[in-house]
Amino acid sequence: MRERESERSVVAAAEAPSLDTVFDVLSDGRRRRTLYYLHDAEDGVATISDLADWVTLLEDTSGRDAVLTSLRHVHVPKLVDAGVAEYDARSGTVRYWAPPALEEWLEHAYHKERP
């Protein structure tokens, strides 16, 4: 029994992003805004198109295509590499995994940034 519990702990620790990774993910405003949207999504899933609309609205910019391109080629891949999201190119959907280590700091950032 103890071996199984310790195996689960090792797996959970391996899956949890490091503090360096958490702060790297949160260091960019566009990624934070993306995560805010995914965090509030009912099942943590959104299309990359919806994310682009949301981020464009929040950034008060008319450059939706530039936002979409940066999400597709920079920010979503960064979230995937950090192990906090999954991207399905066929459906254009992003799934957020909400690791507790990131959630704590994401909520803190949200409360500091909201007007």
What does this structure look like?
- The chain has one domain: Arc Repressor Mutant, subunit A (Orthogonal Bundle).
- Helix content is 68%, strand content 10%.
- The chain has a 3-stranded antiparallel beta sheet.
- The protein starts with a helix and ends with a helix.
- The N terminus is likely disordered.
SSE inventory with pairings:
Elements: H1 2-15, H2 19-26, H3 29-40, E1 45-47, H4 48-59, H5 64-81, E2 85-88, E3 93-96, H6 100-113
Antiparallel strand pairs: 1-3, 2-3
Helix pairs in contact: 2-6, 3-4, 4-5
Count helical runs: 6
Shape: globular
The CATH architecture classification is Orthogonal Bundle
Number of domains: 1
In short:
By secondary structure, this protein is mainly α. The chain has six helices and three strands.
Keywords:
115 residues; mainly alpha; Arc Repressor Mutant, subunit A; three-stranded antiparallel beta sheet; 68% helix; globular; disordered N terminus
